[in-house]
Amino acid sequence: MDDCLVATAEGELTLHRQMNHHLLQIFEENSYFLKLLKCIFEQSEVDFLGVRLGHGEISIDPSKIARIKDWPTTLKSVKEVRSTLGILGFQQPFIPGFADIVKPLMNLLKKTTNFDWTLACTTALVTLCDIITSEPVLVPPDQDWQFILEVDASQYATGAILYQADKTMTDHKGKPILWPCGYHSL
C-alpha cells in the first residue's frame, strides 16, 4: 500500500488515533500489508504526493523547489518545452494566472509554428520559476466565503472549476485572485 494519509484538525489526537485504528482494521480485514518502516504516524506536517501539508496550509515540497531553482532559462526543443510544462504544470494551483503566463510556451507546441525561442518565452519561464521558488502557499477553502463555479462545454468535453477569491490579494487589474478549490472534467 502506497500513499495513504489520515488527517485531522490540530488538537484532535484522540480522533486521529481512532481513524488510524479503523483504517488499519480495514487493511487487515482485506489482507493489505504495510511496511512499518515506511509508515509515519501523528505528524503535524508531512510531504505527500509532491506537496507539504501542515498547519492549515499546502505548499510545494521543498525538494521540488530546489530542482526548479536551477532550471535553464532557455529551452532548445519542443520535447524540452513539453517536459518543463509537465513539471511546472503540476504546480499550477500555486501559480495565479498560469494560463496567461504560459501562452508563449504553449505556442511553441503548435504543429503549425516553427520552434523559435523568444524573449517572451524566457520571460514566461523565468516568471513561472520565480513564483514557484518564492514558496507560495495555498490554504483550504473558507466555507464562510463566496465560491465561484466556472463551467465550460464543447462537443468533446465538459468541465468545471470551483474557485474561491482571495480576500487579501488582487491581480494587476485590481481584481481578486481566484484560487482553484477543485477540478472536474468529462
Key structural traits:
three-stranded antiparallel sheet, alpha+beta, globular, Alpha-Beta Plaits, 186 residues, 33% helix, four-stranded antiparallel sheet, 7 strands, single chain
- The helix/strand class is alpha+beta
User: Can you list the strand order of the major beta sheet?
Assistant: 1-2-3-4
The CA-CA distance between the termini, in Å, is: 28 Å
Instruction: Could you tell me the CATH topology label of the largest domain.
Output: Alpha-Beta Plaits
Domain count, please report it: 3
- The succession of helices and strands, N to C, reads HEEEHHHHEEEE
- Number of strand elements: 7
Average pLDDT over all residues: 83
**Global morphology:** globular
Tell me about the largest β-sheet.
4 strands, antiparallel
Percent in strands: 15-25%
Low-confidence stretches: none
> Can you name the CATH architecture of the largest domain?
2-Layer Sandwich
Radius of gyration: 20 Å
**The level-1 CATH class of the largest domain:** Alpha Beta
Helix content: 25-40%
Total helices: the number is 5
